[in-house]
Amino acid sequence: MDQLAIETRGLVKRYGEALAVDHLDLQVRCGEVFGLVGPNGAGKTTTIRILVGLSEPSAGDVRLFGQPLAGSGPALRAKVGYVGEEQAVYPYMRVSEAMDFLRAFYPRWDQDLALRIADVFRLPLRQRAGELSKGMRVQLALVLALAPRPPLLILDEPTAGLDPIARRDFLSTVLGEAVGPDQSVLMSSHNLTEVERVVDRVGIIVHGRMAAVRTVDEFGSSQKRIRVVFQADQPPAGILDQPGIAGVAREGRGYLLTVDGNVEDIMASLARVPTFALELLDMSLEDSLLHYAGGDRRA
Amino acid sequence: MGTTPSFWLHVNPSSGVPLYLQLKEQLKRAIGGGVFRPGDRLPAVRELAVEAVLNPNTVARVYRELETDGYITTQRGIGTFVAADPGPRLSESERERALAAAGGRFLAETAQLGLSAGDAVSYLVRRCGVGAHGSLPGPAKE
């Protein structure tokens, strides 16, 4: 069954004149890990704050598990675990006290799970939250978000500022505890590389709009295809023998080239001869992000 | 598993090669190299996903393709195993060649970082914890 964990239609958030979210359509299916990727200021955090009820939309429709978020009660909100950029844990509480405090609010709280993950992260249970390092605060926030076993986990730039090992532990824990047939994860990042290994699909958000949605199969492939129809009966000598052209197939009146690198040079040389048609197919996710955002994916 | 060193797998999202293809090639190499022998049980999809920090569907896809290609067999409800005849084991010389290529890359990058060959060696010793007998220890947390 293809129920949606998250569905927004025409979601808009205005701050005065500025449109932070501009008619955003987002669909996260039950059981999937969805990455929301875009440059800083694209509207990721604004969208997420609306989804978790920290901010009201200016217009549009938001549904979680098919139920409208507007006017919903605690039952729907309790289905969502959230780790934001700022970790809202009372700084004077010890790690163990923060667990006990939240535990009272959630009937489904799984204390064994909380202690197990805290142990994986080597979180000092006696330490006060305010004295934890930034990395540990994020880890504590994940423990607190996972312990109620929410069917939907929403993570806003969760691994920003974590070192590579902590990041690995974090993502590994999310995969182990929050991913399953009845569990969904929405995770934002400005860094595609960071999310692509764990997600099923990625939505690229630019200027508050969903610019593209890609599945995991389309990730990271450097292979492209070029479709070209030459005006001459025969292709110009040598033009199909360039380095990078891995395959040549006839397609109607034209050719379908499989290209493994050197794409720009090949396109440029094809553009110099008379053609009826010349197009680059199979944009990778990376290309799309660069294309839509005009930025560096590893910025 | 059990005796398999935990660092047998290394998937890198920045390499430009799709993640599922990296995982597939590395599993094939591990089978050809004898890390996993015919009849050995492979980690469950979920287990490998957590270990390699990959989406479970990516791992499941690789298992499906390796099964189609005859490297592994899945027994529903029991587990995934290396096929009785997963194809030829890599020969000693093939393994030497692959090691030379991987070692060359490692040493070049070490040199480019301005580190010495001694640094490279001591890193390997530290990382692997190679004992006097030269064998690798059990799983080491990365």
Explain what you see:
Chain A is built from 9 helices and 14 strands. Chain A has 299 residues and is α/β, with parallel strands linked by helices. In chain A, the strands form 3 sheets. Chain A has a 6-stranded mixed beta sheet, sandwiched between helices. A 4-stranded antiparallel beta sheet of chain A has the order 2-1-4-5, with helices on one face. In chain A, helix 4 packs antiparallel against helix 5 and helix 5 packs parallel to helix 6. With 142 residues, chain B is mostly helical. Chain B has 2 domains: 81 residues, Winged helix-like DNA-binding domain superfamily/Winged helix DNA-binding domain (Arc Repressor Mutant, subunit A, Orthogonal Bundle); 50 residues, no CATH class. Chain B is built from 5 helices and 3 strands. The longest helix of chain B is centred in the C-terminal third of the chain and has 21 residues. Chain B is globular and about 50 Å long. At the A-B interface, helix 6 and helix 7 of A face helix 2 and helix 3 of B.
SSE order of chain A:
EEEHEEHEHHHEHEHEEEEEHEH
Mean pLDDT of chain B: 82
Distance between the termini of chain B: 17 Å
What is the rounded Rg of chain B? 16 Å
Count helical runs of chain B: 5
| Global structural class of chain B | mainly alpha
Sum up the overall morphology of chain A in one term.
elongated
Mean pLDDT of chain A: 86
Overall form of chain B: globular
CATH fold-level assignment of the largest domain in chain B: Arc Repressor Mutant, subunit A
Largest interface: A-B, 22 and 21 residues
Number of strand segments of chain B: 3
Q: Which percent band covers the strand fraction of chain A?
A: 25-35%
Structural class estimated from helices and strands of chain A: alpha/beta
Topology overview:
The complex is a heterodimer of chains A (299) and B (142).
Chain A (H helix, E strand, L loop, with lengths): L3 E12 L2 E12 L3 E5 L6 H8 L7 E6 L2 E2 L5 H4 L2 E4 L11 H9 L7 H10 L13 H13 L5 E5 L7 H15 L5 E6 L2 H5 L4 E6 L2 E7 L7 E8 L14 E7 L2 E7 L2 H9 L3 E7 L3 H9 L6
Parallel strand pairs in A: 3-8, 3-9, 6-7, 7-8
Antiparallel strand pairs in A: 1-2, 1-4, 4-5, 9-10, 11-13, 11-14, 12-13
Chain B lengths: L18 H14 L8 E2 L2 H8 L3 H13 L3 E4 L3 E4 L9 H21 L4 H12 L14
Antiparallel strand pairs in B: 1-3, 2-3
